[in-house]
Amino acid sequence: MRFTTTIRSLAMAVTAGFCVAGAAHAADTEIKLGYAGPLTGPQAHYGEDMQKGLILAIDEANKKGIKLDGKAVKFVLVSRDDQADPRTAVTVAQQLVDDDVSGILGHFNSGTTIPASRVYHDAGLVQIAMGTAPEYTKQGYDNTFRMMTSDTQQGAAVGRFMVETLHSKKIAIIDDRTSYGQGLADQVEKAVKAAGGQVVRREYTTDKANDFTSILTNIKGAAPEAIFFGGLDAQSGPMKRQLAALGLTMPFVSGEMTRSDTFLKLAGDAAEGTYASLAGVPLDKMAAGKEFAAAYKARFKEEPGVYAPYAYDGAWNMITAMEEAGSADSAKYLPMLRKLHRKGATSESIAYDANGDLKEVSVTIYQVKNGKWEMVETMVSQAQ
């Protein structure tokens, strides 16, 4: 797949760059930061986006000349491909532990983040993940933190939006049975019912499927006023085309995995009118979104994706905690991360609650208009 070649080339280039720089700064102590995400397969574009955000933060940190334990340090990103597969995630998690990394920035998917988190917890390593299923930070571990708003918070906002803003009282829900898709769909269902709506049909698919005709035909018979899908753009794109082919014109709503250029390409003209939620705020509305975008484009010669700025802040959160503790030892910088309060690219106020969830809750609803994603509304509040 074309993403595979891109990621492998990027990884080789980054590794080579670090090696050359390392020769120039031989006296610097090397601090390894681990990253794991989907770097091959249909989700590679998510993993690439996240990885580039991390790389940008590490580049900047190395230019800053940070000292830990009184010594100049150089941060190095050690990347592993978890293939968005839970079993592979556990394997690469142990590889990262064996590589003697000082912290984990990943995984991307909830389905990989949660099983891998047990490995990191047992090893005593701090983990800041993109995975947003609520179970991640509810395991009772003291080392788990997020880069984005959780699915509990996002699902609540989406459910209310469909009932209260779209005035859709009868909702059909589909999910792909992944931790992410099912978890988000479950939260949407709760919110729909709490807002006075009714779930008239709940259907299931997989993250490998591409024919949804049978599911959509069943849904058509239930006459919903809106359809929500919890899953990836690789499925939501074909699903939206098939909805149009069946003459189903009610609003189609999904989560942040659908808010992508890949969805627009896969859905084609049928993408028009689709809604998608995204944890966070639009890039141009972020605290330092414009500055981040300029730095990203200068470094990678392309526009940043959805996840890059959150990965960037996640990396800086970890590095800032290390700097404040004066150490890359997880046991020493963990307390600093717990009481962290900083302005980042994505927010004026980045801080964590007792579970490792972000205190600031922000969710934005987007809609496809004239072939492009446009913001509909943003909801920002403090977690309860």
Automatic annotation (TrEMBL):
Please state every residue range assigned to the domain named Leucine-binding protein. 30-371
Q: Which Pfam families match?
A: Peripla_BP_6
Question: Which key words are in the record?
Answer: Amino-acid transport, Signal, Transport
UniProt KW Transmembrane helix keyword: no
List the signal peptide residues. Answer: 1-26
Q: Does the keyword Signal apply?
A: yes
Q: Which biological process, per GO, is one annotated for this protein?
A: amino acid transport
Spell out the family assignment given in the record's similarity comment: Belongs to the leucine-binding protein family.
Name of the protein: Branched chain amino acid ABC transporter substrate-binding protein
